[in-house]
């Protein structure tokens, strides 16, 4: 396999921009030197933890660990003591990398600390480990069904995903990416930092997301924007009042949303104001990226596009039998196969075995429908978003999108709960646009029935002040039960 970062390991350009975080930046030559210094320090380790703040140090640390052929374990600085303790016991890192001055929690006291100096240099161009199966990252899942599991992601998967996205998005070294995503997750770290560096392009990280920051960078030469639906919702809300934001988005080459479904009404508001359509892609920690709307394809709102080059994707029935035809209506579980997959859950051979079929397909747990032309639409998680009501299999996602089209709804989530007649009844959790005049159940049920089908209308309505969300903006549906 070729090197992960050709622009770093083959006479890096002294002036070519690589990373910028706020007013701090590094050229490719400076990144090669700083990353090479980290690589020299960690080369003898097996796994190295990185305190993954949205800073230049985190990017340099992860790049240096990868240049050394060692596995990086990104740590979420907002993890609680119990979760962090579990991750450290499970991954057993020999070192923890951090920015100078970072206050680390007590759980890290017994692990040797190395402060990253982004201006440190080495006398030689850094090497890059060639073995494609060498672990590159151990990224911990959200732990919704138990303690977080460490997905071991090999270098082969990084290269396969980033090259497939380059094909789908026509991504080159001339692109400049702007985003404000956290760096302890696949979206912000792999796509948002390692992606531009593999292409030889540049990334400008906002540190903290703001619509003003997005407008500033897009109007100053950035060509691509990555975000999650919460960010794009804030953008859609700000567009009528921020002409600089409209201008910046209008000139961007590519606007990409991921990590959760982007509501159709936000798609339409952004397109109407800017003439640009946001494209969506679909992936997860264990698979990196599986599908995307292509830059040269139709940006069809509500879909995540087609399988990426090198990715096989199929939908299966509850008994595991593959669907034999795709009609855009029949719901099945997504299974994928390809070089983009992780190798194992660290120290969990039982969970690893359960995640794969006998012939190597990964069971994603996501439910979807597929159009005859290959476009995929995710309708939810099998565990929380597949509702079986009145003999129908219903995906929560399409009902949520329909609810969000109602002017009285600001946020919406849909779940199922036991019903003696229907099996499960559809429950709508709604944050009202005007808390003093929230829409009623009959009004919302009729609204959904007109857009979808009568059997998809909510039977129960619960109003909330806000929906529980994680760091990536995903709604935590299991936490909704606490509000009953």
From TrEMBL:
Gene3D superfamilies from the UniProt entry: 3.30.300.30, N-terminal domain of ligase-like (3.40.50.12780)
Domain AMP-dependent synthetase/ligase, residue spans: 13-346
InterPro entries assigned: AMP-bd_C, AMP-bd_C_sf, AMP-binding_CS, AMP-dep_synth/lig_dom, ANL_N_sf
Superkingdom in the source lineage: Bacteria
CDD domains named among the record's database cross-references: MCS (cd05941)
Residue ranges of every copy of the AMP-binding enzyme C-terminal domain listed in the record: 398-474
Family per record: Belongs to the ATP-dependent AMP-binding enzyme family.
PANTHER family linked to this entry: ACYL-COA SYNTHETASE, ACYL-COA SYNTHETASE FAMILY MEMBER 3
NCBIfam families: PRK07787.1 (NF005858)
Protein name as catalogued: Acyl-CoA synthetase
């Amino acid at each position: 396999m070729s090197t992960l970062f050709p622009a770093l390991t083959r006479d890096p350009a002294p002036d070519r921009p690589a990373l910028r975080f706020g007013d701090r930046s590094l050229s490719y030559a400076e990144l090669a030197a700083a990353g090479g210094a980290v690589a020299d320090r960690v080369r003898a380790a097996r796994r190295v933890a990185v305190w993954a703040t949205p800073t230049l140090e985190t990017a340099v640390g992860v790049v240096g660990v990868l240049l050394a052929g060692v596995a990086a374990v990104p740590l979420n600085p907002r993890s609680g003591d119990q979760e962090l303790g579990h991750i450290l016991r499970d991954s057993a890192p020999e070192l923890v990398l951090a920015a100078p001055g970072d206050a680390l929690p007590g759980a890290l006291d017994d692990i040797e600390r190395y402060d990253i100096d982004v201006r440190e240099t080495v006398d030689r161009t850094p090497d890059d480990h060639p073995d494609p199966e060498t672990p590159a990252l151990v990224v911990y899942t959200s732990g919704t069904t138990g303690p977080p599991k460490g997905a071991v992601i090999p270098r082969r998967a990084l290269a396969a995903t980033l090259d497939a996205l380059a094909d789908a998005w026509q991504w080159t070294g001339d692109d400049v990416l702007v985003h404000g995503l956290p760096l302890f997750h696949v979206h912000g770290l792999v796509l948002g930092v390692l992606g531009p560096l593999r292409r030889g392009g540049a990334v400008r990280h906002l540190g903290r997301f703001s619509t003003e920051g997005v407008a500033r960078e897009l109007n100053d030469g950035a060509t691509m924007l990555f975000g999650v639906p919460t960010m794009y919702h804030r953008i859609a809300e700000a567009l009528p009042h921020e002409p600089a934001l409209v201008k910046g988005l209008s000139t961007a080459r590519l606007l990409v949303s991921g990590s959760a479904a982007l509501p159709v009404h936000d798609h339409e508001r952004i397109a109407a104001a800017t003439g640009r359509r946001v494209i969506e892609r679909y992936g997860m920690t264990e698979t990196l990226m599986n599908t995307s709307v292509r830059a040269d394809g139709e940006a069809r709102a509500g879909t995540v596009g087609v399988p990426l080059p090198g990715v096989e994707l199929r939908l299966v029935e509850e008994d595991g039998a593959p669907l034999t035809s795709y009609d855009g209506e029949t719901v099945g579980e997504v299974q994928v196969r390809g070089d983009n997959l992780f190798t194992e859950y660290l120290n969990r051979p039982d969970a690893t075995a359960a995640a794969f079929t006998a012939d190597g397909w990964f069971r994603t747990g996501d439910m979807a429908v597929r159009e005859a032309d290959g476009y995929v639409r995710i309708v939810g998680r099998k565990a929380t978003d597949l509702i079986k009501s009145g003999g129908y299999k219903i995906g929560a996602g399409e009902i949520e999108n329909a609810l969000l089209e109602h002017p009285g709804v600001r946020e919406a989530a849909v779940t199922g709960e036991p019903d003696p007649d229907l099996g499960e009844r559809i429950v709508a959790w709604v944050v009202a646009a005007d808390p003093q005049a929230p829409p009623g159940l009959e009004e919302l049920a009729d609204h959904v029935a007109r857009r979808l089908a009568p059997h998809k209308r909510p039977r129960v309505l619960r109003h909330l002040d806000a929906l529980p969300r994680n760091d990536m903006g995903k709604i935590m549906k299991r936490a909704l039960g606490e509000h009953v």
